[in-house]
Amino acid sequence: MATPVESPQSAPPGGGKFKRSVGFYGLMFISLGSIIGSGWLLGALNAAKSAGPASLLSWVLAAAMLAVLALIHAELGAAYPVAGGTARFPAFAFGAVAGFTAGWTAWLQAVAIAPIEVEASLAYLDNISWVKDNLNLLKENGSLTFSGFCWATLLMILFTTINIVGVKLLSESNSVTVIWKTAVPVLTIILLLTLSFHSSNFHAGGGFAPFGAHGVFAALPLGVVFALQGFEQCIQLGGEAKNPQKDISRAVIAAMIIGTVIYIGLEIAFVGSLDPANLIHGWGNPIAKGDFGPYATLAVAAGAGWLSYVLYADAFVSPAGTGLVYVGTSARLSYALGKEKLLSPKLGKLTLRGVPIWSILLAFVVGEIAFLPFPSWQQLVGVVTSATATMYAFAPISLAALRKRDPGRPRPYKLPAPKLMAPVGFASANLIMYWAGFDITWKIVVAIIVGFVLFEITQAVSKSERALEMEWRSAWWIGPWLIGTVVIGYLGRYSSVPNAGNKSILPEWIDLAVVIAFSLVIFYWAVSLAMTTDKVQAAVAREEDEIAVEPDILTA
């Protein structure tokens, strides 16, 4: 029987451990606040341009695939409530090498989202005439001016300060923001469906699916998956949940359900509210996206001009709120890597207030670097989507391995039909990576290789004992999996930009069968390579000991 998680009352005062102060609603709002960000303002437009009215199928498909992954994360998060869980779960099952790969990929996508959302907020603000005339935030090419960089830095400092004060303030400030962020799209859906809805739009401009199945699949990395991802963020705060065994799974599932209903409603409202005259020549340019996304334009056309002003405010609040959350959750991921001594052990130290301050400061520094000129928001979304799918792929394999090697672990939430759902979840993550495009997939693999260089440097200079064995044999599957994914992408039919180097050799539908078959081979091979039962249970017990005893305290 596993040792129960220590209650906050039993923690010694000033003990320097994570404070278990976040309840169900705080956890749910953390995930929901991550799901509803800048994606909702442009996700529907980009999906419609790719798939036409069949973009609804894109949202339903993405929701179904991510729902499976969310349920998998729900079981893992409730059974193993630790900070930076997406990095810890693979480490428990496969050792330090697998844990680092998952954690590094998770940290890369999480640390990039905060600056992306900050830039989105400033880009929307720059369209207000007074802001443009007096603050001069953006250059003509969309990159930040010196003034814009200063304002972006100010926002990052604010986010960093809130996180340093503690997770309770993060949770409370985020909860207020999320209520607003949820209310605005719901209000938008109701008004557009009521005031301006044309059912004929769903078969206009070439029919329901003018670009066929390819368009439906291609829409997923164009903002659909990006919009729905983020359900796992409350799991990164698992070490700070009041009642993690009960609340984490409920928070993940509730946030995913609410986010899915809102996004599908937004797509229906968007397609139905378009001017039918704009669709005569197809879906290539159904509406100008406008300064604050297409919904403001639709609101004005529907006679609800006042709603456009609400959307103007939300165009700043939604991305900024998501950026606040990701500064905190990315810090928990680097904390996990430091705690397991996979990167600098300093990252795994806590202040007396139970805050991973070095990890939070690292998120701030990397965010500042990310403000350097980058490609378009859309290209960045594709990169983050692929990195997130790579991170998600570790969860189903970890769940299957941990169920096999740690069967006595209390599981407050149990995934239904795990023998079916786990391989389906892994195949889903691989399909999302494939649809993101070959040109993005190989860059993600290069970023993982760079991470391994840092990993090896850390191990070479570290004089402390490693928290986990390297277990290279248990991680043998990772290299063939990543290389195989790149090769299939090279032979496949998807890329984020034209002429990206992929050969389109695999026929349509055959390519998806190849991805699924490859995924199943890797899945069952990987599970068979998991560490022995004794090693897995020892790794889990070591984590439980860390929860129950005094951790390292940062005193300077």
Structure commentary:
With 556 residues, the protein is mainly α. It has one domain: Amino acid/polyamine transporter I (Up-down Bundle), CATH 1.20.1740.10. The protein contains 21 helices and no strands. The longest helix has 35 residues. The N terminus and C terminus are likely disordered.
DSSP summary, beta strand count: 0
CATH architecture: Up-down Bundle
Order of helices and strands: HHHHHHHHHHHHHHHHHHHHH
User: What is the H level of CATH, i.e. the homologous superfamily?
Assistant: Amino acid/polyamine transporter I
Report mean pLDDT, rounded to a whole number.
84
Cα(first) to Cα(last) distance is: 38 Å
Name the beta content range: under 5%
Topology:
Elements: H1 24-35, H2 39-51, H3 55-79, H4 85-94, H5 96-125, H6 129-134, H7 146-165, H8 167-195, H9 212-218, H10 224-228, H11 233-236, H12 244-273, H13 294-301, H14 305-339, H15 357-370, H16 377-405, H17 418-436, H18 438-461, H19 478-491, H20 510-528, H21 533-548
Helix pairs in contact: 1-8, 1-12, 1-14, 2-12, 3-12, 3-16, 3-17, 4-5, 4-16, 4-21, 5-7, 5-14, 5-15, 5-16, 5-18, 7-8, 7-14, 7-15, 8-12, 8-14, 13-14, 14-15, 16-17, 16-18, 16-20, 17-18, 17-19, 17-20, 18-19, 19-20
List keywords for this structure.
556 residues, mainly alpha, Amino acid/polyamine transporter I, 21 helices, 0% strand, disordered C terminus
Could you give a quick summary of the protein structure above?
The protein has 556 residues and is mainly α. Helices cover 66% and strands 0% of the residues.
